[in-house]
Amino acid sequence: KNYSDYYQANFKDVFQFALTPPEKLPTDNYISYGNKARLLFESHARTHYRIEYTTNREHDKLKEFYRIPDNADDDFKNMLDVINSLSHGMTFADENSISSRELQRNIRFLLEVLYNKDRFHVEQMAGDLM
Question: What's the rounded Cα separation, in Å, for the pair 53 and 7?
Fold first, then answer.
């Protein structure tokens, strides 16, 4: 139950960040949303497909299981790069500038991937934010 509560709390936090209007996006402390997004995706992939890490090393499996069309593959790879890179803390952010808007765009893509694969899951986790 605690894990489930933790997962849903993170899911709602990430979902709220995805819904934030661009002019109201935070200009600091937004990097943590990349790590939270990675946690969501890895938890889903681990639970449903026994994929331990949602990295480009697992790209082909992830693409197959999440039914990523070829025309969205570049966006998918970029999303994987962003959420995984930001999960390593400020080192990546210090060396590679990423705006809150770019992070939001990648998180929206991730949520779209999850929604297309498991709409019920997203609706249940997002709850009243839907």
Answer: 16
Q: What's this model's pTM, rounded to 2 decimal places?
A: 0.89
Q: What amino acid occupies position 24? A: K
The count of structural domains within the chain is 1
Range of the domain at 124: 2-129
> How do residues 28-37 score in pLDDT, each as one tens digit?
888 889 999 9
Asked if 126 and 115 touch (Cβ cutoff 8 Å), the reply is no
Non-local CB neighbours of 42 within 8 Å, separated by 6+ positions: 51, 52, 53, 54
Q: Amino acid identity of 111? A: L
Quickly state the pLDDT bin for 14 (edges 50, 70, 90): very high
Count how many Cα atoms sit within 13 Å of the Cα of residue 4 in the half-sphere of its side chain: 4
DSSP state of 55: S
